[in-house]
Every structure is written in structure tokens, then in C-alpha cells.
Amino acid sequence: MKYPKVIYLGGAPMVGKTTIARIVASRLHYDCVSTDDIGAAIASVTELASHPAFHYMGDRDFREYYVSSSMDDLIRDANNQHEALWPALLTLFRNHSTWGTAAIIEGWALRPDHVSQLSGDIAGLFLLADDCLVEERVRASDFSVGASDEEMMIRRYLERSLWYSAHIRDQVERLGLRSIPISPEMRPREIADQCMRVLGVNERP
User: How many domains does the structure of the chain reveal?
Assistant: First the structure.
């Protein structure tokens, strides 16, 4: 079975992208790169004045950012950061698909309208989950512990996640991109198996 030199794995927050990417990367002996890490690295060497899209939280604790932001603010900030991040991710794709090592690149910053324009030895898919699964995983997480209003933080994070999930689902369907529907009973290794079946190509003898 032959696999693309670079595989992307996208989807809404909390659908299991990182877990699945690490399983598949381990099986294929690929590098595994998170778009969140790339964004954090850019933020660490830039400032608000020069790169506002990477410093949208300002001096606020991330929990208070969600508590104090409106839904419109959250969507705008996510869209701005993803747009600003894409040139760096595009370079990452190009480097790994040519002279670099084989890699899986995962993260919610991988927008369908962006990855649909990729060319070369690159392919991937999106993990799509229904609203109930997204809510279940958001509420099971402990990331809101310590917020001034934990329920408000969860609600804001969930609202943005559900908006994003619906947004990319529409784009995936419109662009005809590969996807795998995720259900609560599916185990990570089962999802990884499906990813590899979808992305693998039988080599001719």
C-alpha cells in the first residue's frame, strides 16, 4: 500500500485529530506536525503590533478570553489567525512534499478551501463529528477549570466549535474532499484504520 508523502488531517476542535494523527504517523514512521504548534511558535517571536492575528487574546488568560468574548469575536479571531497562518503552513506542505521528510500535518487551522488547492504528493481528509459528540468532548475536558465563569467558558468554546464544525462540513461537501464521520463508539485505532484505508493506494505489481 502506498501513501502520500504528506498527509493532512483536519476537523473541528475535540474530534481527535491529534490522537489519530499520532497513531497513523507511528504506523507509517512519519513526522507529526501540529498547526497549533506552528501558530504558537509564530506568536512567540512576534508582537501584537506586527502580527495581531497571533496575539488576539492580548494579556488575558485564555480562559478569560472565552468568558469575555462574544461569539462574533471568537469566530473573527479564529478566521483571522487561520488566514494569517496559511502561508507558513503552505511552506510546510511544500517543503515536506519535496525535499523534506514524510509527515502528517494536523490541526483545525487546515481549512478545506485552502487544502483543496494543494498539489504534489499530498492528500488528506477531515474528521467530521455530529454536534452531540463535539459537546460531549468539550464538556468532558478540564480546560475550563479555573475560569471566573466555567459554564460560560464552556458555552462559548462549544458555540464556536459547533459553528466551525458546520462550516467545514459544508466546505468539505461543496469541494468534494475526503472525510470520515466520527461517532462516539468509534475507538481511535478504528478511526486510524479507516484513515489509512481511505488514503492508501494499491501499488501495481
Answer: 1
